[in-house]
Design a protein that fits this description.
The complex is a heterodimer of chains A (303) and B (304). Chain A folds into 2 domains: 1-71 and 268-303, no CATH class; 80-266, MetI-like fold (Orthogonal Bundle). Chain A contains 13 helices and 2 strands; from the N terminus they run αββαααααααααααα. Chain A has helices at residues 5-41, 64-71, 81-112, 117-125, 132-143, 148-155, 170-194, 198-206, 211-222, 224-240, 243-248, 257-266, 271-302, and strands at 44-45, 52-53. Chain B has a domain at 89-300: MetI-like (MetI-like fold, Orthogonal Bundle), CATH 1.10.3720. The longest helix of chain B is centred in the N-terminal third of the chain and has 34 residues, at 83-116. Classes of the chains: A mainly alpha (303), B mainly alpha (304). At the A-B interface, helix 1, helix 3, helix 4, helix 5 and helix 7 of A face helix 1, helix 3, helix 4, helix 5 and helix 6 of B.
Chain lengths: 303, 304
């Protein structure tokens, strides 16, 4: 036993004592709920009360609920299939929209905002402090049948009747998702682009690259980590989102996976289906989630 | 010419050159236009919603004059006199306060612990924590909802359940921010304190914790503001009208025929959020004196 051993051990004990409360909390209130969802989705439905009977023991797991969900993906009862396809299409479109808005804005702030950088950054961060629901409420106000947009369109004589922006229009939902989530993409991208040294760009230009060449061969490759982080941070919440859809469309014709989960949870006899759908969401998002966690752990170890 | 760093816009002389050569460092007008356009698109709708909370009529789109009717003047419909709106406002702030008081100490301890305890167990705890950060909120909310309704938990749906859910979802903020700060502080201060005779706990309390104050305040502000914004967890884990938050109120009534009182409630939340950010920023400045720049704007934005 060297002289520092007890000191290290005491430091280690303190570490255990400090870690345990948080670890126990996460086990009880994060891992247990996930297991409950698994048990429900692999459980059965009580034939009399139509209530869910969770399968707590893995040996009792049944594939009934998953079979039910899978059987409704295609074929004559396939009312889940279109919702899944729609979710993928809407999320892809909205993520592409976020990328198209976030990249130029992040690049401008990182490279060209000059003396006004503080102000522009504050304005870009502002949506984080405005409640998501308020931002959606603002658009409901604007796009309602008697909203400002319809007043302006009608006043200018462009439309005879108010445009029903808020009833089942895919464009409204996708633009709403872009509006809601784009701030979460701008910041990681800004952080990545801000790290690119201006000297590298000057070097590229000195060596004869044009504006576009410099961007394509220097900026773009170097911004990939920030872009990926932004994509994950936006795509994950979007895929589980149901409230944007409810507020801006409120129509089954634009329902997404999140809406399906939400309506299933509201109906006690559909608990098993809700559990299975939640697991579908987790499985669909497993790859981006694990990639993000892994890169976080890596950067942890590097520091 | 080409090597000028960040040359001012006037640097391009009006020399007759080909149209294709417009100066290598000319200001990017298109990018500037996109950014200004984005900022207007992102903020103008909210500013209009705030403006119409001061409307003297019922409309949320036609201006009928300035009034404080929807805040306190209207005897039944204003935020002050409509009990459900007032309750939503106070309940949201209560949840924010309770969640911050639980999540921040728990998260700070967790971060300090992970810094000291190495092995498979703390590594998987860290993994779980990061997973709770990226998992779609609806997964956690639905899981907790079924756990509380199906298992014999010592609490039912309502305020306690909401706080439990919010703490679980927010725990990662203090952990990630404090761990980042610990990485920049390094082990040397703590070791110096130990060499000078401090106990393990004493070194942490009297040397490390004061240095962590800016990070702790930053994460407290983030957690509080994020709770004010929360919708999915608080809605699934609410029990009745008494545990409704402003976000639930907006969700339930926005598509009906709400009065500008709804905008007024949203505006008050906005003010509360900005006040907290301002106080947090002042606290970070106050406690961060003498240290290198701790919490930047990015940290405040939840960028981790």
């Amino acid at each position: 036993m060297s002289g520092t051993a007890p000191r290290d051990r005491r430091r280690g004990l303190l570490g255990v004592a400090l870690t345990l409360p948080g670890a126990v909390w996460l086990a009880v209130f994060f891992l247990v709920p996930l297991y409950v969802v698994v048990s429900i989705s692999t459980g059965t439905v009580d034939p009399v009360f139509r209530s869910v009977v969770p399968a707590w023991n893995p040996r009792d797991w049944s594939g009934d609920q998953f079979g039910y969900v899978l059987s409704r993906l295609t074929g004559p009862d396939g009312f889940f299939g279109p919702v899944m396809v729609r979710t993928v299409v809407y999320v892809l479109l909205a993520v592409a929209g976020c990328l198209a808005v976030a990249y130029p804005v992040a690049w401008f702030v990182a490279r060209h905002s000059g003396r006004r950088r503080g102000l522009v950054l504050a304005l870009i961060v502002a949506p984080f402090w405005i409640s998501y629901m308020m931002r959606m409420l603002a658009w409901v106000n604007l796009l309602a049948d008697d909203g400002l947009v319809n007043r302006l369109l009608g006043g200018a004589g462009l439309v005879a009747d108010p445009v029903t922006f808020l009833s089942g229009r895919p464009t409204t939902v996708v633009l709403g998702l872009v509006y809601g989530y784009v701030p979460y993409m701008i910041l990681p991208m800004y952080a990545a682009l801000d790290r690119i040294s201006p000297a590298l760009l000057e070097a590229a230009r000195d060596l004869g690259a044009g504006r576009f060449e410099t961007f394509r061969r220097v900026v773009l490759p170097m911004s990939v980590p920030g872009v990926l982080a932004g994509l994950v941070l936006v795509a994950l919440p979007m895929t589980g989102d149901y409230f944007t859809n409810d507020l801006l469309s409120a129509s089954p014709s634009t329902a997404m996976l999140g809406n399906l989960i939400n309506t299933s949870v509201a109906n006690p006899s559909q608990a098993g289906q809700a559990g299975a759908l939640v697991l579908v969401l987790v499985l669909a998002m497993a790859v981006p989630m694990l990639l993000y966690v892994r890169s976080s752990v890596r950067s942890d170890l590097a520091s | 010419m080409t090597a000028l760093p960040q040359a001012p816009p006037v640097a391009t002389p009006p020399v007759a050159r080909g149209r294709s050569w417009r100066g290598p460092w000319r200001p990017p007008y298109v990018l500037a236009a996109v950014t200004v356009g984005y900022l207007v698109w992102s903020l103008a709708p909210v500013l209009l919603a705030v403006l119409f909370s001061f409307n003297s009529g019922r409309s949320r789109s036609a201006w009928q004059g300035f009034s404080m009717r929807w805040y306190y003047a209207d005897p039944t419909l204003s935020v002050l006199h409509d009990e459900s709106l007032r309750r939503a406002l106070t309940h949201t702030l209560t949840l924010g306060l309770l969640t911050t008081l639980v999540a921040v100490p728990l998260g700070v301890a967790f971060a300090l612990g992970l810094d000291r305890w190495h092995g498979r167990l703390p590594a998987s705890a860290n993994f779980t924590m990061l997973l709770s950060f990226v998992i779609p909120e609806i997964v956690l909310a639905v899981g907790l909802f079924y756990m509380i309704t199906l298992l014999a938990t010592p609490f039912v749906l309502g305020t306690t359940a909401q706080v439990v859910g919010l703490v679980t979802f927010q725990l990662s903020y203090p952990v990630v921010i404090v761990r980042a700060r610990l990485a920049t502080i390094g082990p040397q201060y703590e070791e110096a304190a130990r060499d000078l005779g401090a106990s393990a706990f004493g070194a942490m309390r009297r040397v490390l914790l004061p240095m962590l104050m800016p990070a702790i305040f930053t994460s407290a502000v983030l957690v509080f503001a994020d709770v004010l914004d929360d919708f999915v967890i608080v809605r699934y884990l609410s029990s009745d009208a008494f545990t409704e938050t402003t976000s639930i109120k907006i969700y339930n009534t926005a598509r009906g025929a709400p009065t500008p009182a709804l905008n007024a409630v949203a505006t008050l939340m906005l003010v509360a959020s900005f006040v907290v950010v301002l106080l947090g920023w002042l606290a970070v400045k106050r406690f961060g004196r003498g240290q290198e720049e701790p919490g930047s704007l990015g940290a405040f934005a939840g960028q981790v």
